[in-house]
């Protein structure tokens, strides 16, 4: 069992004691991604787009892409933004989307509006 830490400068550096992603046994566990620089603007679609781009950069650094994602978790500050988030999120999965849950939470790191984590397999 060989654990590999995945890091790319094309996504935000961790803001705590965690890795952007960990690859082990053909599986990639991507930590929750946020769009810190966009959060204060309140444009949930732009924020979601940036989060998905961050995930894409990490996937690429691990030699994978969106088609390798099998599970995602979406955390939102306001469930009223669900449709807007879903619209952007759906653009990244044109066929066979991954399993997913979406959960409303009271607060997210750096007061962002959406955070998404994924699990991908080779």
Give the full name of the CATH homologous superfamily. Answer: RutC-like
What's the average pLDDT? Answer: 95
Strand arrangement within the widest β-sheet reads 1-2-3-6-4-5
Unreliable parts: none
CATH classification, class level:
Alpha Beta
Global structural class:
alpha+beta
Radius of gyration: 14 Å
Number of helices: 2
Oligomer: single chain
**Helix coverage percent of residues?**
10-25%
Order of helices and strands: EEEHEHEE
Shape category: globular
> What is the rounded distance between the termini?
15 Å
Strand content: 25-35%
CATH topology term: 60s Ribosomal Protein L30, Chain: A
How many E strands? 6
Largest sheet: 6 strands, mixed
**Based on the structure given, which CATH architecture is correct?**
2-Layer Sandwich
Number of domains: 1
């Amino acid at each position: 069992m060989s654990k590999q830490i995945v890091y790319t400068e094309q996504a935000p550096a961790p803001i705590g004691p965690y890795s952007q992603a960990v690859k082990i046994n053909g599986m990639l566990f991507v930590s929750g991604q946020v769009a810190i620089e966009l959060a204060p603007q309140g444009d949930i679609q732009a924020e979601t787009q940036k989060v998905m781009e961050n995930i894409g950069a990490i996937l690429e650094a691990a030699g994978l892409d969106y088609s390798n994602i099998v599970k995602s978790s979406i955390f939102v500050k306001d469930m009223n933004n669900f449709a807007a988030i879903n619209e952007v999120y759906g653009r990244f999965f044109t066929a066979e989307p991954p399993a997913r849950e979406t959960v409303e939470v009271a607060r997210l790191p750096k007061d962002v509006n959406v955070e998404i984590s994924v699990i991908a397999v080779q």
